[in-house]
Write a structure and sequence with these properties.
This protein has helices at about 5-15, 25-30, 35-50, 65-75, 130-145, 160-170; strands at about 15, 20-25, 55-60, 80, 90-100, 105-110, 120-130, 145-155, 175-180, 190. By secondary structure, the chain is of the alpha/beta class. The structure holds guanosine-5'-monophosphate. Guanosine-5'-monophosphate binds near residues 129 and 132.
Length: about 190
């Protein structure tokens, strides 16, 4: 997978923080570049077009932009899991996710009305690090009886091992940019 436009942007505008954190606030995580996001949606659509997907699953907030772009192109519904349990949601599926960037565990939940037995889903997110968010999604899909057709990430930090874990679970993982190292605050791509 070779997505030069994204790689160039990461190298030019990405910033490293201690503890292996990459900030891409100026074009993905805070201020967003819709043209780049559309291209990301197109790339995910191309990758997953023959996988017989019924819907796209993501986690609020940063996964929503790439997921909605992909959903618009593929004409598929997009469901985002919520981090706060709404009082008005019945029939709720819940799992726990540990966030290493925030160093806390949060719940992810979604209504079982929007994830049904036998549905084939793709999970889209901004980052793949240790794979904790993805584990929460695997758990929710297991509870619902839904099938994971694959997972797509804008940026994978390869050195944190989430990709290896997901592949060991038999999941097809696609990342548009792969970061090999953030050592000495230098962004090194594969
Ligand atoms: P994981 O669950 O795979 O350990 O981490 C992925 C989640 O944590 C993503 O949803 C993302 O929001 C956040 N995350 C992990 N690493 C980074 C990072 O280097 N930068 C930013 N901005 N978010 C990250």
């Amino acid at each position: 997978m070779n997505f030069k436009l994204l790689e160039k942007r990461i190298l030019e505008d990405g910033r490293c923080y201690a503890g292996g954190i990459l900030k891409v606030d100026s074009f993905i995580n805070h201020q967003m570049d819709p043209d780049l996001m559309m291209k990301i949606g197109e790339e995910f659509s191309r990758i997953f077009k023959n996988k017989g997907i019924d819907k796209i699953l993501t986690i609020e907030a940063s996964g929503i932009a790439p997921a909605i772009m992909m959903g618009a192109i593929m004409h598929l519904p997009v469901v985002f899991t919520k981090k706060k349990q709404p009082k008005t949601m019945d029939n709720m599926l819940v799992s726990n996710v540990h966030s290493f960037t925030k160093d806390r565990t949060y719940t992810v939940c979604l209504s079982a009305d929007f994830l049904k037995k036998g549905e084939r889903v793709v999970f889209i997110d901004d980052f793949l690090a240790y794979g904790n968010a993805a584990r929460g999604i695997i758990d929710l899909c297991r509870q619902a009886g839904a099938e994971i057709a694959g997972m797509g990430f804008i940026i994978e930090k390869v050195f944190q091992g989430g990709g290896d874990y997901l592949k060991s679970q038999g999941i097809d993982v696609y990342s548009l940019a792969r970061v090999k190292s953030l050592d000495n605050c230098k962004i090194e791509l594969e």
